[in-house]
Amino acid sequence: MSFVLFGTSGCHLCEEAEIIMAASFPEIKLEMIDIAEQEQWQEKYAIKIPVLFHRESRKELFWPFSETEVDEFIRAIKFG
Predict the structure, then answer these.
(1) What is the CATH number of domain 2-79?
(2) Which helix (H) or strand (E) holds 4?
(3) Cβ-based neighbours of 21, under 8 Å, separated by 6 or more
(4) pLDDT by residue (tens digit) across 13-36?
(5) DSSP H/E element including 59
(6) Where are the domains of the chain?
(7) What does the DSSP assignment read for 17-43?
(8) Are strands 2-7 and 29-34 parallel, antiparallel or unpaired?
């Protein structure tokens, strides 16, 4: 499975989300996208980052999230 982590540079919450993903879900391919790159992302996610996004299902998990919540999010996507 692969996910996108929407965030921006200098965001300490985004760094925390990255740590959760790297430490607890190393098998997950994570693409980092800086919302500053596109105005539409800034408008959609500005006050919600970090956001974990699954492209295929279009589902989003908004901060704050824990390892347990990420695990539940992934399971819900896998098993419908």
Answers:
(1) 3.40.30.10
(2) strand 2-7
(3) 3, 5, 28, 30, 52, 70
(4) 999 999 999 999 999 999 999 999
(5) strand 59-62
(6) 2-79
(7) HHHHHHHH-TTSEEEEEEGGG-HHHHH
(8) parallel
Distance CA(33)–CA(36), nearest Å, equals 9
| CB contact burial 19-51 (16+ within 10 A = b; e otherwise) | ebbeeebeeeebeebebeeeeebeeebeeebbb
Task: Give the pLDDT score at 1.
Answer: 86
CB proximity list for 20: less than 8 A, separation 6 or greater: 65, 66, 67, 70
Residue 78: pLDDT over 90: yes
Question: Is the separation of the CB atoms in 60 and 52 below 8 Å?
Answer: yes
Determine contact, residues 36/73, Cβ cutoff 8 Å: no
